[in-house]
Design brief:
The protein is α/β, with parallel strands linked by helices. It has three domains: 168 residues, P-loop containing nucleotide triphosphate hydrolases (Rossmann fold, 3-Layer(aba) Sandwich), CATH 3.40.50; 89 residues, Rossmann fold (3-Layer(aba) Sandwich), CATH 3.40.50; 135 residues, Rossmann fold. It contains 17 helices and 14 strands. Helix 12 packs parallel to helix 17 and helix 13 packs parallel to helix 15. The radius of gyration is 24 Å and the shape is globular.
């Protein structure tokens, strides 16, 4: 059975000082030796990830971080890696020793609060002593859930588990759909899936699999075809599909073979809505009009695949944008969870569909771009815009199309 992808799991980040028992707590809740436990402070270096099923909540990803009070050059590198985990944390866990509370704990709580991250505070090592009453009163006033544990003895773990379930964000439990809301029960979507060098042998890429499952969950029909077979498949249907979805790289051919009255979009544009902020990315797409030769563009990929000769992020999109601008642009590429702290050198950021990221991390990236004044868009929107078919690609999303037309009229 395939495991639930990381990007669809609730990300639970475990933060705190060194040697407060974060790793022991993770081992206790997962009932596995996931992280190395030692009396030596700073044993955990890079964030340690552990996927599991936390019933009745479902699939989660625990992230055990290095102590945020680390010192020295190496310690600062550990702290920087820990800080990046904030960007993808859906539910924050702050671990403190039972008798300790100070500026580090207040700083982490403030970070959670500023990001709107629901929080659980765990006072560990309760066999040594309990927290101060004033601290408990302050947490209660802030409506922050608290658990008392002695992780190395297995004490209080059930209370910690219940606190996680109680604090889980409602938007994770009521997960948004990818496309089933656009199709409807008993209706059909046609998914155009090219089988080329970038398609993994013997399987489909993640957005395609997730789209199929979403249609099944929505009691909709799904028909899969390659781009060369689309016209014949459409001719065989007695009733037009509610939606045609294509890989962005086949946009032009699929647009030509799809009847004009049938709504059309791409997997990448669907994921701009599902994982991020479609309206913000539409505004970012229009920034292409302001690009000039010599401008720097950042291409951000959520996965760490090995690129091929005609890679969409490294070859095709740079080529299309260069042709659109009419001069050479400078392109840089980042992968995975790497994302520059300083975005000021870039005039545009082009992101993939982010199927490997959770929604909070993608929204955090969009927010950072907005704060830096750097527009962000995604692969599907850039391809559709470069090919002159973006209005058609946005027709399944009327409010998004209105935003595009309004914004576009302002730069016409």
């Amino acid at each position: 059975m395939e495991k639930t992808p990381k990007g669809m799991r609730l990300h639970i980040g475990i933060f705190g000082r060194r040697n407060v028992g974060k790793s022991s707590l993770l081992n206790a809740i997962t009932r596995q030796q996931v992280s190395i436990v030692s009396d030596v402070a700073g044993t955990t270096t890079d964030p340690v990830e552990k996927p599991m099923e936390l019933l009745p909540l479902g699939p989660v990803l625990f992230i055990d971080t290095a102590g945020i009070d680390d010192t020295g050059a190496l310690g600062e590198m550990r702290v920087q890696r820990t800080r990046r985990v904030f960007d993808r944390t859906d539910l924050g866990v702050l671990v403190a020793e039972a008798g300790e509370w100070g500026q580090y704990e207040d700083m982490i709580l403030a970070e959670f609060k500023s990001r709107g991250i629901p929080t659980v505070v765990v006072f560990n090592k309760m066999d040594i002593g309990g927290p101060r009453r004033e601290v408990l009163d302050r947490l209660a006033a802030g409506k922050i859930r608290v658990a008392m544990t002695s992780a190395d003895r297995g004490s209080g773990i059930l209370d910690f588990r219940q606190a996680l379930l109680d604090a889980a964000p409602a938007d994770f439990i009521n997960n948004p759909t990818i496309l089933s809301d656009l199709v409807g029960p008993g209706e059909m979507a046609v998914l155009v899936i090219p089988v080329d060098k970038e398609a993994p042998k013997g399987r489909l890429i993640l957005p395609q699999v997730q789209a199929i499952r979403d249609l099944l969950d929505g009691d909709s029909f799904a028909m899969m075809v390659k781009e060369r077979e689309l016209r014949e498949a459409m001719d065989r249907l007695k009733k037009p599909p509610k939606l045609v979805v294509t890989d962005s790289q086949a946009f032009m051919k699929v647009a030509a073979d799809t009847p004009r009255e049938v709504p059309l979009t791409s997997f990448s544009i669907l994921f701009a809505r599902y994982k991020g902020d479609l309206a913000e990315m539409i505004r970012g797409t229009l920034a292409i009009e302001k690009l000039k030769p010599g401008d720097r563009v950042l291409v951000s990929e959520a996965c760490s695949h090995h690129p091929i000769a005609e890679d969409i992020g490294r070859v095709k999109i740079p080529r299309w944008l260069t042709q659109f601008v009419g001069g050479k642009l400078e392109f840089a590429t980042v992968q995975g969870h790497d994302f520059p702290d300083d975005l000021s050198p870039y005039r545009l950021i082009v992101h993939c569909g982010a199927c490997m990221l959770n929604r909070r991390e993608m929204l955090a990236r969009i927010l950072r771009c907005r704060q830096a004044g750097v527009p962000i868009t995604n692969y599907g929107l850039v391809v559709a815009y470069s090919l002159g078919i973006i209005e058609r690609a946005l027709e399944p999303f009327p409010s998004a199309l209105d935003i595009y037309r309004s914004e576009a009229s302002g730069i016409a």
